[in-house]
Amino acid sequence: MAEISKIAKQLRKFALSYPEAWEDFPWEHQVIKVRKKIFAFIDNDGNKQLNITVKLPDSGDDAIAMEQCELTGYGLGKAGWITARFKKGDKLNEKQLRAWITESYKAIAPKSLTKTLPNEAK
């Protein structure tokens, strides 16, 4: 099983591969933005915990049924934002987490950017 910090690093790298994506650190969180809008919060505390928050307009109902997931606080949950919290020893499905990042990017990014994505990401 891969270490949480390694997975978090890979997820950030994946998120940053999208057009015009960049990393920022508001409110003591690591976030990935497209232009000026956040599409993913990817925080980890060494190898103790990984928190990922994404907007899931299509798969949010499935995600919220998972034990590690909850509606994001501060009213963001009402807008389709989900937070998943994984601790050391939890099984992480990196493919699913990447799909969530993709879905969130597509929900936040301008259509002029999403139409430039490869077919498998559309």
Summed up, what is this model?
The protein is of the alpha+beta class. The protein has helices at 4-16, 60-64, 94-108, 111-114; strands spanning 21-24, 31-34, 37-45, 49-55, 69-71, 81-87.
How helix-rich are the residues, as a percent range?
Answer: 25-40%
Query: What is the name of the CATH architecture?
Result: Alpha-Beta Complex
Low-confidence stretches: none
Class inferred from helices and paired strands: alpha+beta
Radius of gyration: 14 Å
Shape: globular
The main sheet orders its strands as 1-2-3-4-6-5
Oligomer: single chain
CATH topology: Aspartate Aminotransferase, domain 1
The SSE order reads: HEEEEHEEHH
- The average pLDDT score comes to 90
Distance between the termini: 30 Å
Tell me the domain tally: 1
Number of helices: 4
CATH class wording: Alpha Beta
Strand content: 25-35%
Query: Biggest sheet, in brief?
Result: 6 strands, antiparallel
Count all strands and give the number: 6
Structural account:
The chain has 122 residues and is α+β, with helices and mostly antiparallel strands. The chain has a single domain (4-111), classed as Aspartate Aminotransferase, domain 1 (Alpha-Beta Complex). 30% of the residues lie in helices and 28% in strands. The protein has helices spanning 4-16, 60-64, 94-108, 111-114, and strands at residues 21-24, 31-34, 37-45, 49-55, 69-71, 81-87. A hairpin with a 6-residue loop joins strand 1 (21-24) and strand 2. The longest helix is centred in the C-terminal third of the chain and has 15 residues, at 94-108. The protein starts with a helix and ends in an 8-residue tail after the last helix.
